[in-house]
């Protein structure tokens, strides 16, 4: 008899604990921040622009991206039609970014 009561008590504790875990999201839902500032602070210029390497070695059409943390400006070639392909292969060629310089703006976060 004592063992039967003890087992029933343990089952009751387990059932109440599981119910508490199952109902917690409905009683106290977690806080959600849709626009938290934890993302990467990049500004992507709309459209494409003619990118020129600082040393003048190459000119190519691409996207301009500004890193708002330190002011670095990067250009990413887009190759207007599609990604370039290697000859005799189905893999796309490696596209390297072009470091275009640095913006000196006191509004950029450090």
> Shape, please?
rod-shaped
| Poorly predicted parts | none
Give the rounded overall mean pLDDT: 76
Radius of gyration: 29 Å
Describe what this molecule looks like in 3D.
The chain is of the alpha+beta class and 110 residues long. 24% of the residues lie in helices and 25% in strands. It has one helix spanning 2-27; strands at 42-44, 49-52, 59-67, 72-77, 98-102. Strands 1, 2, 3, 4 and 5 form a 5-stranded antiparallel sheet that branches. Strand 2 (49-52) and strand 3 form a beta hairpin. It is rod-shaped. It starts with a helix and ends in an 8-residue tail after the last strand. 5% of the residues are buried.
Question: What are the main properties of this structure?
Answer:
110 residues, alpha+beta, five-stranded antiparallel β-sheet, 1 helix, 5 strands, rod-shaped
Brief description of this entry?
This protein has one helix at 2-27; strands at 42-44, 49-52, 59-67, 72-77, 98-102.
Write the layout of secondary structure elements.
Blueprint: H1 2-27, E1 42-44, E2 49-52, E3 59-67, E4 72-77, E5 98-102
Antiparallel strand pairs: 1-3, 2-3, 3-4, 4-5
């Amino acid at each position: 008899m004592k063992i039967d009561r003890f087992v029933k008590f343990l089952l009751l504790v387990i059932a109440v604990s599981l119910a508490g875990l199952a109902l917690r999201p409905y009683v106290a839902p977690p806080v959600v921040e849709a626009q938290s500032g934890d993302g990467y602070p990049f500004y992507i210029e709309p459209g494409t622009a003619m990118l020129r390497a600082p040393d003048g070695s190459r000119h190519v059409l691409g996207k301009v991206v500004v890193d708002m943390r330190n002011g670095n400006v990067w250009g990413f070639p887009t190759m207007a039609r599609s990604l370039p392909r290697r000859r005799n292969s189905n893999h796309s060629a490696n596209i390297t970014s072009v470091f275009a310089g640095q913006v000196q703006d006191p509004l950029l976060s450090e």
